[in-house]
Amino acid sequence: MQRQSDHKAARGAAMNADGSSIAIAALSWISADGEMISRFCALTGIEPGQMRQAAGEPGFLAGVLDFVLAHEPTLMRFCDDNGIEPATVQRAHAELAGGAVPGPGDFV
After folding, report:
1. How far apart are CA 21 and CA 51, in angstroms?
2. Angle between the N-to-C axes of helices 72-82 and 60-69, in degrees from 0 to 180, rounded to the nearest 10
């Protein structure tokens, strides 16, 4: 039950559309799915128990969005579940990674 309520709270945060909120929503979304969290841990080398500590480290949230963006089916599912556009996730990643954040009319 707690996981679902955490995910719902993170989903609301994703609607704010700032980079950190979207990445935290993505982390919550990943954590709520046993198969997804297993894949995330396998690809990143992080253990589930280390995530809270890692979330405070520079670059971790950008890495979460790297994971989501690297696999189109994952990206589309995350976007569908959270009511956001893939370009919003890409802009959030650019913001967190220190890159240029595309504006309206820019092609992403």
Report:
1. 16
2. 110
Query: Residue 7 corresponds to which tokens in the numbers above?
Result: 């995910």
* Token code pair at residue 101: 């954040």
Contact (CB, 8 A) for 52 and 46: no
pLDDT tens for the chain, 108 residues long, are: 444 545 554 454 455 579 999 999 999 999 999 999 999 999 999 998 899 899 888 799 999 999 999 999 999 999 999 999 999 999 999 999 986 555 565 555
**Measured distance CA(94)–CA(23) in Å, rounded:** 11
Enter the tokens of residue 94: 């650019």
**pTM beyond 0.70, yes or no:** yes
